[in-house]
Amino acid sequence: MKQVVWVLLLSSLIGSIIGFVYLKFLLSPLDSDNQTTQIFLVNKNQSFQSIADSLTKSNLIRSSLSLKLAAYQSNKGKNIQAGSFRLSPSMSPRQILDELAHGKLDIWVTIIEG
């Protein structure tokens, strides 16, 4: 009986360590050495899932799960704005999420008639 308890405790500990390491891996930058930037466009009314998928296809994040985790931790998933953003693979998913919430390149001008 004691052996079963020890095996379960050891398995839980190993599983927790592996989960923590994987989480750190997902939330780290895709390529820390690549400082090149690219313009990323978020369309009006674009869903969070499609934004995450586009970031993955553009090789800016590891997977859409990494952006979802960053959004869950920072509670900024609903603050993403439409527009153009300058992003880099050297940015972590949290930094990309901050940029998508605040750092758009577009300037909107309203011209009033008359």
Describe this structure in words.
The structure is a single chain. The chain is 49% helix and 9% strand. It has 114 residues and is mostly helical. A two-stranded antiparallel ribbon has the order 1-2. The longest helix has 25 residues.
Unreliable sequence segments: none
Ends distance: 86 Å
| Largest sheet, strands/sense/barrel | 2 strands, antiparallel
Q: Per the principal axes of the C-alpha atoms, what is the gross shape?
A: elongated
In terms of quaternary structure, what is this?
Answer: single chain
Radius of gyration: 19 Å
- Residue share in helices? 40-55%
Short structural description:
The chain is mainly α.
What descriptors fit this protein?
mainly alpha; 49% helix; elongated; 114 residues; single chain; 4 helices
Topology (elements, then pairings):
Blueprint (H helix, E strand, L loop, with lengths): L1 H25 L11 E5 L5 H10 L6 H11 L8 E5 L5 H10 L12
Antiparallel strand pairs: 1-2
Helix pairs in contact: 2-3, 3-4
